[in-house]
């Protein structure tokens, strides 16, 4: 997988436009100046977690005795389920924070930015081509950087797209993610059979 396609995949999974309305509802009772500080802090925490997972992912797989094919197939299934939820969103909130309470790590850094599906994808990348770790670091930085820009300029995107526009973009991202997850699943199955199970 090339750096750009890996970055696009990670960006689609991070889904900053889809997370935007949720993040705005989390920060609704916090003063505007403080919102930006919280967003920067949570984004930086998420980046540290993503990079730690990227560098430590291979060791974790070795410890668990998990093969690349298993990660590819399970990663494809997870991404498919995430994409289905993006296209057909479920009602209900994602946080139990009291009004005015600042989020810390949960739920913004984890799972909204560095969620299980992003971490599973990093495990997959680091396991498939362990010699390209620095390429994947660049892919993470590109995806994270794009998410950073969208979340930091949330007012512009919110004004430009509106609630319906944000939902439409999220569903489009979900469709793209379904295609990528299906390919990931098929690659895992093909490799499994090529290696004789």
Task: Report on the architecture of this protein.
With 197 residues, the protein is mostly helical. 79% of the residues lie in helices and 0% in strands. The chain contains eight helices and no strands. Helix 4 runs antiparallel to helix 6. The longest helix is centred in the last third of the chain and has 41 residues, at 154-194. The two termini are 23 Å apart. 35% of the residues are buried. Residues 92-96 have low confidence and may be disordered.
Poorly predicted spans: 92-96
The major pleated sheet works out as:
none
The number of distinct helices, counting runs of at least 4 residues, comes to 8
Radius of gyration, Cα only, in angstroms?
Answer: 17 Å
State the end-to-end distance. 23 Å
Strand content range: under 5%
Mean pLDDT equals 83
Q: Which overall shape is indicated by the principal axes computed on the Cα atoms?
A: globular
Order of helices and strands: HHHHHHHH
Kindly name the structural category.
mainly alpha
Tell me how many strands there are. 0
Q: Helix fraction?
A: over 70%
Put the structure in a nutshell:
The protein is mainly α. It has helices at residues 3-14, 16-26, 32-64, 68-87, 108-113, 116-128, 133-152, 154-194. The chain is built from 8 helices and no strands.
What are its keywords?
197 residues, mainly alpha, 79% helix, 0% strand
Helix and strand layout, with pairings?
Layout: H1 3-14, H2 16-26, H3 32-64, H4 68-87, H5 108-113, H6 116-128, H7 133-152, H8 154-194
């Amino acid at each position: 997988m090339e750096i750009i396609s890996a970055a696009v995949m990670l960006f689609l999974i991070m889904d900053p436009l889809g997370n935007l309305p949720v993040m705005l509802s989390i920060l609704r009772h916090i003063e505007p100046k403080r919102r930006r500080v919280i967003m920067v802090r949570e984004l930086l925490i998420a980046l540290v977690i993503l990079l730690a997972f990227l560098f430590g992912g291979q060791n974790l797989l070795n410890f668990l005795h998990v093969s690349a094919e298993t990660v590819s197939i399970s990663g494809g299934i997870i991404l498919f389920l995430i994409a289905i939820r993006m296209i057909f969103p479920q009602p209900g909130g994602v946080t139990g924070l009291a009004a005015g309470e600042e989020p810390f790590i949960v739920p913004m850094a984890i799972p909204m930015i560095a969620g299980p599906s992003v971490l599973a994808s990093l495990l997959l990348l680091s396991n498939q081509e362990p010699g390209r770790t620095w390429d994947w670091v660049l892919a993470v930085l590109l995806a994270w950087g794009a998410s950073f820009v969208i979340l930091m300029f949330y007012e512009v995107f919110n004004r430009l797209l509106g609630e319906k526009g944000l939902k439409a973009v999220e569903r489009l991202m979900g469709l793209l993610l379904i295609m990528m997850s299906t390919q990931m699943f098929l690659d895992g199955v093909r490799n499994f059979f090529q290696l004789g199970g």
